[in-house]
Amino acid sequence: MTRALIIIDVQNDFTEGGALGVAGGAAVAEAISALLTAHPHSYEHVYASRDWHDAEGGNGGHFAVDAEPDYVDTWPVHCVADTPGAEYHPALHLPETTVHILKGQGQPGYSIFDGVDASGQKFGELLIADGVTDVDVVGLATDYCVRASGLDALDHGQHVRVFTDLVAGVAPESSEKALAELAHAGAVLATSELVEQA
Fold first, then answer.
1. What is the mean pLDDT of residues 155-164?
2. If 198 and its partner were Cys, which of 41, 88, 150, 171 is the partner (CB 3.0–4.6 Å)?
3. What span, in angstroms and rounded, lies between the C-alpha atoms of 79 and 98?
4. How confident is the model at residue 186 (pLDDT cuts 50, 70, 90)?
5. Distance from C-alpha of 63 to C-alpha of 2, rounded to nearest angstrom
């Protein structure tokens, strides 16, 4: 068994004060950092995704262009590549060995499985190459990118745990629905207390 931590979109634009900030986003950044500090050897691999949208165009209809966003399929401009909003939240402290995954380059890209690493390798292929069988999913936002990433991980054949104390969502109702959907699909809903020092 090879376990990995998957950190979803803990970026400035998704935390308080950002273009699409969610309540509790900064606290999630701090708590993930505390987990990694307390358990530095619990994960053989750490992957962190970021939305990395193109500055020009609508990114496959993801950005509301010349219309009001519906906050379901279309959104205000956010996480544009190489801007402060796309950077990790300053409270998120990642190991040097973290593999960084960029997604949403010209497209919506909700799931980390839509992303690639620095060499252009697709995330799903990377998991296979690294021999990962089990993943713990944390980050933002519960009801969108965490949901999509967790479901895709299950489809990929991973054993998935979602740490409910290390996620935050856009809205309580849709976040609860997303967690229920993940559980129904086979994910284990747990808290980070399950992580043990290796």
1. 98
2. 41
3. 20
4. very high
5. 37
3-state secondary structure of 45: strand
Q: What is the DSSP string of 145-164?
A: IIHHHHHHHHHTT-EEEEEE
List all residues 6 or more positions away from 100 whose beta carbon is below 8 Å from its beta carbon: 47, 48, 49, 50, 117, 118
Domain boundaries, the chain: 3-194
Catalytic residue IDs: 9, 103, 145
| Residues forming a β-bridge with 50 | 102
- Which amino acid belongs to residue 37? T
Q: Is the peptide bond before 141 cis (omega within 30 degrees of 0)?
A: yes
Contacts of 181 (CB under 8 A, 6+ apart): 147, 151
Which superfamily does 3-194 belong to?
Isochorismatase-like (3.40.50.850)
On whether the pTM is more than 0.70, the answer is yes
Number of helices (H), then strands (E), in the chain: 4, 6
Q: Are 156 and 113 in contact (CB under 8 A)?
A: yes
pLDDT tens-digit map of 80-102? 999 999 999 999 999 999 999 99
